[in-house]
């Protein structure tokens, strides 16, 4: 067995792990990133699309924002569609000039891997059988098998568990040390990618009695759209024609709006849940991103929360390594969780306001419509949505 050491061992080359590694590098702190997939695979996974103002700023500050600024699309608002009509929420006028960027998560990943490797970063792809131990000692360790089968042990000062919902870090924490808060939603999203021009200049979040629809985009000729479905829905049951008929029905407006249709080249069903674990730390293992919390995608918060966790953790580790201060590490979980719970509330609220719940009744339907009417007619209501959507500040 080969043995090495590093300051921070990071598990997972998603947004949380890569951002953490690069911010630490810029502070002169070394890390090793272990990723179970190949580089090609992590650069191809289709996930999020909306970057908050703070995530855009972070990408620029760390020197990874050049392509995003050229190829991403700045969006200054969203459309809420209900009762067959559109109401727009304007971000800059409600948030002191903030907006969001449409830029695919796999492009963020490509850009982060590139800046990391260009600056001598150590990312080990196809790391197998990753395990962590000695977490409650001063020298936590990671063991894994590399591409050629050699087993390596890395002794670290700290380990960052950035390995998402299916990772090994959270399950390595002894039962009883963590509290898990979870809410499952009785629906999922059916997501498609299609080759067509954009149907709208801005994202449309549509509430309809047949179920929620989101019209999003990726580029002038690739569109991303979702419709609410059963969590156990099978993609085989949905021909392209049936999908477009469903989108047309749910997106219908009083003035005859129809989506731009085109060949569908990806169909997936995703489940919806909210999950938060407390605390986000056990000994010298710190959790960041989806390994510690999951939100339903309605608020477009998951990737952005991963980015803020990475910033808060990097700040705490920097204070430790550069100023010999442990206080920020002790406060990490509490500081991160305050913001995470706000995003959890926002994602739950957007989901509840816009989806059709099984067994719902007219009373519930009127409440949801009334909430949408309120949010789009009161400046205070619109502002509450806008400031959360563009992202709340980090404390
Ligand atoms: P990730 O991205 O899951 O990365 C974790 C990495 O860890 C690796 N890994 C391991 N490596 C080594 N050993 C092991 N044992 C490992 N186990 C796992 C994995 O291979 C992976 O590379 O977690 P991270 O960094 O916390 O980032 C979280 C985000 O990916 C996630 O929250 C977002 O994608 C959620 N999300 C959205 N977030 C937004 O902010 N805006 C959006 O518009 C948005 N839209 C979405 C979304 C998620 C979606 N899906 C597919 C759930 C839309 C969708 C459809
Ligand atoms: C996406 O484009 O994938 C997307 C956009 C907004 C959301 C969720 C997903 O709320």
- CATH superfamily heading of the largest domain: FAD/NAD(P)-binding domain
The general outline is globular
**Proper CATH architecture of the largest domain:** 3-Layer(bba) Sandwich
Cα-to-Cα separation, first versus last residue: 43 Å
CATH fold-type name of the largest domain: FAD/NAD(P)-binding domain
Helix- and strand-based class? alpha+beta
Helix-strand layout with pairing:
Elements: E1 2-11, H1 15-26, E2 31-34, H2 39-42, E3 50-51, H3 53-61, H4 66-71, E4 73-75, E5 77-82, E6 85-90, H5 91-95, E7 100-102, H6 105-118, E8 122-124, E9 128-133, E10 141-145, E11 151-161, E12 179-195, E13 204-206, E14 213-219, E15 222-229, H7 240-251, E16 264-278, E17 281-282, E18 285-287, E19 293-294, H8 302-323, H9 327-354, H10 362-377, H11 379-389
Parallel strand pairs: 1-2, 1-11, 2-8, 5-13, 11-18
Antiparallel strand pairs: 3-7, 4-7, 5-6, 9-10, 10-11, 12-15, 12-16, 13-14, 14-15, 16-19, 17-18
The site of 8-demethyl-8-dimethylamino-flavin-adenine-dinucleotide has 36 residues, from helix 1 and helix 8.
Structure in words:
- This protein is α+β, with helices and mostly antiparallel strands.
- It has two domains: 2-75 and 100-181 and 273-350, FAD/NAD(P)-binding domain; 185-271 and 359-390, D-Amino Acid Oxidase, subunit A, domain 2 (D-Amino Acid Oxidase, Chain A, domain 2).
- The chain contains eleven helices and 19 strands.
- The protein has helices at 15-26, 39-42, 53-61, 66-71, 91-95, 105-118, 240-251, 302-323, 327-354, 362-377, 379-389; strands at residues 2-11, 31-34, 50-51, 73-75, 77-82, 85-90, 100-102, 122-124, 128-133, 141-145, 151-161, 179-195, 204-206, 213-219, 222-229, 264-278, 281-282, 285-287, 293-294.
- Strands 1, 2, 8, 9, 10, 11, 17 and 18 form an eight-stranded mixed sheet that branches. Strands 6-5-13-14-15-12-16-19 form an eight-stranded mixed sheet. A three-stranded antiparallel sheet has the order 3-7-4.
- A hairpin with a 5-residue loop joins strand 10 and strand 11 (151-161).
- Helix 1 (15-26) runs parallel beside helix 6 and helix 10 crosses helix 11.
- It starts with a strand and ends in a 6-residue tail after the last helix.
- The model has no long low-confidence stretch (mean pLDDT 97).
- The structure holds 8-demethyl-8-dimethylamino-flavin-adenine-dinucleotide and P-hydroxybenzoic acid (PHB).
- P-hydroxybenzoic acid binds next to strand 14.
- The site of 8-demethyl-8-dimethylamino-flavin-adenine-dinucleotide has 36 residues, from helix 1 and helix 8.
């Amino acid at each position: 067995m080969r043995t090495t050491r590093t300051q921070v061992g990071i598990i997972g080359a998603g947004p949380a792990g890569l951002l953490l590694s690069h911010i630490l590098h810029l502070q002169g702190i070394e890390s090793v990133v272990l990723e179970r997939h190949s580089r090609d695979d992590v650069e191809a996974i289709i996930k999020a699309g909306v970057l908050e103002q703070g995530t855009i700023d972070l990408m620029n500050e760390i020197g990874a924002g050049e392509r995003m600024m050229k190829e991403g699309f700045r969006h200054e608002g969203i459309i809420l569609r209900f009762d067959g009509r559109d109401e727009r929420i304007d971000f800059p006028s409600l948030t002191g000039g903030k907006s969001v960027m449409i830029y695919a998560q796999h492009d963020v990943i490509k850009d982060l891997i590139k800046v990391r490797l260009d600056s001598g970063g150590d990312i080990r792809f196809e790391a197998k059988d990753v395990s962590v131990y000695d977490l409650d000692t001063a020298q936590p360790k990671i063991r894994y098998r590399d591409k050629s089968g050699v087993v390596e042990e890395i002794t670290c000062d700290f380990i960052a568990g950035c390995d998402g919902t299916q990772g090994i870090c959270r399950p390595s924490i002894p039962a009883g040390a963590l509290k898990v808060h979870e809410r499952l939603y009785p629906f999922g999203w059916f997501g498609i990618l299609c080759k067509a021009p954009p149907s709208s200049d801005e994202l449309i979040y549509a509430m309809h009695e047949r179920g929620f629809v989101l019209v999003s985009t990726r580029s002038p000729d690739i569109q991303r759209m979702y419709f609410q479905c059963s969590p156990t829905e099978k993609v085989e049951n949905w021909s392209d024609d049936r999908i477009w008929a469903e989108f047309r029905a749910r997106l219908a407006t009083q003035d005859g709006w129809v989506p731009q249709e085109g060949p569908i080249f990806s169909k997936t069903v995703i489940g919806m849940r909210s999950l938060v674990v407390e605390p986000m730390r056990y000994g010298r293992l710190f959790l960041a991103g989806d390994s510690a919390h999951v939100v339903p995608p309605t608020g477009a918060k998951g990737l952005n929360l991963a980015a803020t966790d990475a910033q808060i953790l990097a700040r705490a580790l920097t204070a430790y390594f550069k100023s010999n201060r442990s206080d920020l590490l002790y406060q990490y979980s509490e500081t991160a969780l305050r913001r995470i719970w706000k995003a959890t509330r926002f994602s739950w609220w957007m989901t509840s306001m816009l989806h059709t719940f099984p067994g719902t009744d007219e009373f519930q339907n009127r409440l949801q419509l009334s909430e949408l009417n309120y949010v789009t007619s009161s400046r205070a209501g619109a502002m509450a949505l806008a400031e959360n959507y563009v992202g709340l500040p980090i404390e």
